[in-house]
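Below is one such record:
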Amino acid sequence: MKQITFTQLIVLSVFTRVGFFIFGLYQDAYLLVKYTDIDYLVFSDAARYVANRISPYMRETYRYTPFLAWLLVPNSWDGIWYNFGKLVFMLSDIITGAIILSLLKTIFSGKNISQNKILLFSSLWLLNPMVITISTRGSSESILTVLIMSSAYFLLGKQNYFLSALFMGAAIHLKLYPIIYLASVFIFLSDKGPLFFKVPFICNVNKHNLLYAAVTLCVTAVLNLIMYQIYGYEFLENAFLYHFKRLDHRHNFSVYNIVLYYISTIGAQSSLKGIIFPLEKLAFVPQFFISIVAIPIVFAKKDLMSCFFLQTFAFVTFNKVITSQYFIWYIIFIPHILARLSHAERWRRHRGLLNLLLWLLSQSCWLYFAYQLEFQGRSTFDKGLIYSSFFFFLSNCKIIGNLIEDISSCIFP
């Protein structure tokens, strides 16, 4: 059987995205439910503001770095330029896939994984309908994935810690959550150079991990300072602080959805709010402990990419707000996980398929009740949506446990 080549895979991924994009134009023009994501309208409005030298935060619900609005200024021009941002996101998708493939080749070189399998695993990003749909609808997550995978590539593929830190700092500026990877990289680099001092039970401190942390944080700080100098406190409030206190209860898969719903409906002086509000704030405790402390300590030195995946999956699972775009955050690591598990026992590979089915089933249950609520006007919040959120959460917890066992069996002697 003739094997597909890298060029053929890229060409196929380009045509697939173009097909989704064209269908999206048709759906927006003729169907009741629009294809384009509401966030894309927000981006475009913000781009129009900055093109006219007005703050992008004049656009209500713009909660991103102004750099994104600057990048999408062509969206504010007439005609087909409105779709400029979607093309940028689609291109970023493809670049991410190319980096994934290159990194897989580097990490698994000489480990009895064929070129055909490497291409197959990479296609799980490049030809993934969820990934393609999210970028062609106008979500900006693919810009973030380029930065994260570029950081991983220079760290693991080129051992260029400085460039890796530059990309990581830019990623943290774009969205705050990649800062969870800094703990893992710090531990990963702890054996890569002469010891300065030792942190008991965690890692050694040397020039490499100190430099990496310093460069990452400096890049983030400089970018934030530039934006603060231009836009002031409204930049900090909308790009960062808002995400610590957001109370989105619509389109939210999270198990905390019910808490956020009641916070949004009860009065500010209600005695219930005094009970619920601390519970909502405590949501960060298990999330941070698992994703920033426990997982990096156990996995960072053994397999950094698997560590990134587990961190991200746990972070999203325990987050107060979960939307479909958040799944992209850990899907970028799925090709590596499958390559790592490709030589696992057969029953573990079968369990991986069951994990996928469980994830899809729990997500589908939630989407069914959400559709009934949003589009059919039926009251399903108390009758189904809450239970499906718990089902999704527990399913993800089970998947995390299974993956920790399976990955450990492959990377620990």
Notes: The mean pLDDT is 88. The beta strands are 195-199, 203-206. The chain has one domain: 6-245+283-343.
